[in-house]
């Protein structure tokens, strides 16, 4: 696909017919299809019956089990990946080489090496396809409003921040064989659960400079961690704490940013609306200014639909989407650095992890006690 062809409506293929496709992606696609912006033309799943059922339910003309066969036959404009992270690199590269844009569920892929390979496959001129990540929390109206306040310095310098994803997952959750394994889930709560809040924090505060992390396996019989913490210094000088847990009965997702003139707080669980944000002014700030800060405008909750609407518009207009390229890599790099810091006991700086570093190709970095058990060191990915 190139900028020479108008891609509206975007002919869209859904790969993976599981829960996330049904609960999040298909409802968003239906809405945009009704607006004439997309057309779902293919459903693919490794289980033929699942692909066929989804195609029947959604009146999708093509279904199959082979991604490359679908790409050759259908030639979609956009491929939506609702598959496990272990196959994201292979499927993304295939779609990009076939000329399709990619919208990929989180976690984006198991390593920075995989991410860079995907990005390289999409390199081209203006209007050419690229891969973007599902980071829908950036796209609610609340985040958009707060980001604009921070970017123009309305709240003063950001100074101190706290970001937490403290959820609860029981032993039955981890009885599913692919969960808690590096190769199939892509990581523990730092990667698989807290990634959305971490991404939103970075989107609001900008580039990070260094991280010092800690990880533990306290309850669950898993390869990955079940809790992690980190201290982060941003390029701006702001400092933050990060907590990711699946051990917390009182579940909450929260971001708090203390700026010179106000504290901004977001408290929710899996998604937010404008009412979930709170702005508390410092003493002496005029009431008129505070009223302006608190005018969030029309409420657009964070959702797959909110992001997909922006992505489709970006594709049609030939723009780079915010969660593609460097805009998506920054979050994965921070999470990788958190793991490296936690497993080595060192402070890790932005840009430090590259080819030749064991953490570039695997989040566990072959660290003793964390690398997958029973796999010879020379065979670990």
Topology:
Blueprint: E1 10-15, H1 19-34, E2 38-44, H2 48-58, E3 62-64, H3 67-74, E4 78-81, H4 88-97, E5 101-104, H5 112-121, E6 131-133, H6 141-151, E7 158-168, H7 171-174, H8 182-185, H9 189-192, H10 195-205, E8 208-216, E9 227-234, E10 239-245, E11 247-259, E12 262-268, E13 277-281, H11 287-293, H12 304-317, H13 326-344, E14 348-349, H14 358-361
Parallel strand pairs: 1-2, 1-4, 2-3, 4-5, 5-6, 7-10
Antiparallel strand pairs: 7-11, 8-9, 8-14, 9-10, 11-12, 12-13
Helix pairs in contact: 1-12, 4-5, 6-10, 10-13
InterPro entries: Gfo/Idh/MocA-like_OxRdtase_N, Gfo/Idh/MocA_Oxidoreductase, GFO_IDH_MocA-like_dom, NAD(P)-bd_dom_sf
Domain GFO/IDH/MocA-like oxidoreductase: 144-264
Protein name: Gfo/Idh/MocA family oxidoreductase
Structural overview:
This is Gfo/Idh/MocA family oxidoreductase. Residues 144-264 form the GFO/IDH/MocA-like oxidoreductase domain. Residues 10-118 form the Gfo/Idh/MocA-like oxidoreductase N-terminal domain. By secondary structure, this protein is of the alpha/beta class. It folds into two domains: 10-134, NAD(P)-binding Rossmann-like Domain (Rossmann fold, 3-Layer(aba) Sandwich); 145-298 and 321-381, Dihydrodipicolinate Reductase, domain 2, CATH 3.30.360. It has 14 helices and 14 strands. It has helices spanning 19-34, 48-58, 67-74, 88-97, 112-121, 141-151, 171-174, 182-185, 189-192, 195-205, 287-293, 304-317, 326-344, 358-361, and strands at residues 10-15, 38-44, 62-64, 78-81, 101-104, 131-133, 158-168, 208-216, 227-234, 239-245, 247-259, 262-268, 277-281, 348-349. The protein has an eight-stranded mixed β-sheet. Helix 1 crosses helix 12 (304-317) and helix 4 (88-97) packs parallel to helix 5. It is globular. The model is unreliable at 1-5 and 375-381 (pLDDT under 50).
């Amino acid at each position: 696909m190139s900028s020479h062809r108008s891609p509206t409506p975007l002919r869209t293929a859904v790969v993976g017919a599981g829960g996330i496709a049904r609960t999040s992606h298909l409802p968003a696609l239906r809405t945009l299809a009704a607006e004439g912006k997309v057309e779902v033309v293919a459903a693919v799943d490794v289980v033929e019956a699942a692909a066929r059922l989804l195609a029947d339910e959604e009146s999708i003309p093509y279904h199959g089990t082979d991604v490359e066969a679908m790409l050759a036959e259908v030639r979609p404009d956009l491929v939506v990946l609702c598959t496990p992270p272990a196959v994201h690199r292979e499927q993304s590269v295939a779609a990009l080489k076939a000329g399709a844009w990619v919208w990929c569920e989180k976690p984006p892929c198991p390593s920075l090496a995989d991410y860079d390979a995907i990005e390289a496959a999409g390199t081209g001129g203006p209007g050419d396809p690229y891969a973007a990540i599902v980071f829908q929390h950036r796209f609610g109206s609340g985040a958009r409003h707060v980001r604009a306040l921070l970017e123009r310095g309305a709240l003063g310098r950001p100074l101190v921040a706290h970001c937490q994803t403290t959820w609860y997952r029981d032993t039955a959750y981890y009885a599913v064989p692919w969960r808690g394994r590096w190769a199939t889930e892509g990581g523990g709560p730092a990667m698989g659960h807290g990634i959305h809040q971490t991404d939103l924090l970075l989107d609001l505060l900008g580039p990070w400079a260094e991280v010092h992390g800690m990880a533990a396996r306290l309850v669950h019989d898993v390869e990955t961690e079940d809790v992690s913490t980190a201290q982060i210094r941003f390029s701006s000088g702001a400092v933050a704490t990060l907590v990711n847990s699946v051990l917390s009965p009182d579940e909450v997702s929260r971001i708090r940013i203390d700026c010179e003139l106000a504290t901004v707080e977001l408290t929710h669980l899996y998604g937010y609306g404008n009412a979930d944000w709170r702005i508390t002014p410092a003493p002496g700030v005029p009431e008129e200014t505070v009223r302006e800060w608190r005018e969030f405008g029309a409420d657009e909750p964070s959702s797959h639909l909110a992001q997909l609407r922006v992505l489709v518009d970006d594709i049609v207009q030939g723009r780079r989407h915010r969660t593609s390229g460097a805009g998506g890599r920054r979050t994965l790099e921070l999470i990788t650095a958190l793991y490296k810091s936690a497993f080595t006991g060192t402070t890790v700086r932005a840009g430090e992890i590259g080819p030749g570093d064991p953490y570039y190709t695997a989040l566990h970095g072959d660290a003793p006690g964390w690398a997958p058990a029973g796999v010879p060191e020379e065979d670990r990915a």
